[in-house]
Amino acid sequence: LFSSIKDGEGLQLFEQGHRTAHKQECHTMEAVRLVEFNLKQVLTKLMTHIFGDGLQVRWVDCYFPFTHPSFEMEINFQGEWMEVLGCGVMEQQLVNSAGAQDKIGWAFGLGLERLAMILYDIPDIRLFWSEDERFLKQFIGPHIWQKIKFQPLSRYPPLINDISFWLPSETYSQNDFYDLVRTVGGDLIEKVVLLDEFAHPKTKKVSHCYRITYRHPERTLTQDEVHRIHQAIEESAVRELGVEGRF
Questions:
Q1: Which of 6, 7, 8, 203 has its Cβ near the most Cβ atoms within 10 Å?
Q2: Contact 194, 210 (CB under 8 A)
Q3: Rounded distance, CA 15 to CA 25, Å?
Q4: Start and end of every Aminoacyl-transfer RNA synthetases class-II family profile domain (predicted)?
Q5: CA angle 168, 173, 175 (to 5 degrees)
Q6: How far apart are CA 45 and CA 53, in angstroms?
Q7: Between vectors from CA 111 to CA 109 and to CA 113, what angle results, nearest 5°?
Q8: Which of 96, 144, 134, 139 is nearest to 213 (CA)?
């Protein structure tokens, strides 16, 4: 740490001293202060990168068994101070046991699930262990910077209806049909998937069959409600996409 400093013979990493609230017995005060500064600078930049510029940060002294001195980092998020991680200068005995007796290190720990809960407004940590594709697919995006807001999962049962039609002879795009379904069905559309594709051996016409999953976030849907929406999707597909219904 001090090897490149001219006339720095008096600056050392280690000494034989006493443990205080500010340092371990084997560290010099100069070394600890520089390591602590580096630790806080890096972690502040990490949180600023995650939460954005202008983030207010404060450090709270605390105790951890593997670091000394130790700190908790708090950020001001939505008007409240919130603890996001713990960190500190590593106990030198641990560093020595790793074969790095001539170095000083720092460590930190943060809960990735907790940060994700904050960023995406996820109410229950148990959702991270779920295999429910309604949860998992919400976080699939074209790039890592895409803005995502968690949509609560409905506890109410789904209703599933299929729709089949012959494709028009001109250009047809599946994405156009997906957009049409969501435009007509709105928030009641949970999922649309291509279930089957069939080419007639004589006419060469191509047919698609899609499965549409309907689910209301706050109540149980009736089949009559879904039937009306499904019929409107059929009519819109014929009118706007030029398909030939097999309804």
A1: 8
A2: yes
A3: 7
A4: 30-142
A5: 140
A6: 9
A7: 160
A8: 134
Q: What is the dihedral of CA 88, 89, 93, 98, to 10 degrees?
A: 90
Give me the tens of pLDDT residue by residue for the chain, a chain 247 residues long: 666 777 766 788 899 999 999 999 999 999 999 999 999 999 999 999 988 899 999 999 999 999 999 999 999 988 888 889 999 999 999 999 999 999 999 999 998 888 888 888 888 787 888 777 888 888 887 777 777 888 887 788 999 999 999 999 778 888 899 999 999 998 899 889 999 999 999 999 999 999 999 988 788 999 999 999 999 999 999 999 999 999 8
What domains can you pick out in the chain, each with its CATH number? 29-119 (no CATH), 159-245 (3.30.70.380)
Q: Which amino acid type is present at position 150?
A: F
Coarse DSSP helix, strand, coil percentages of the chain, rounded to the nearest 5 percent: 35, 25, 40
Contact 165, 207 (CB under 8 A): yes
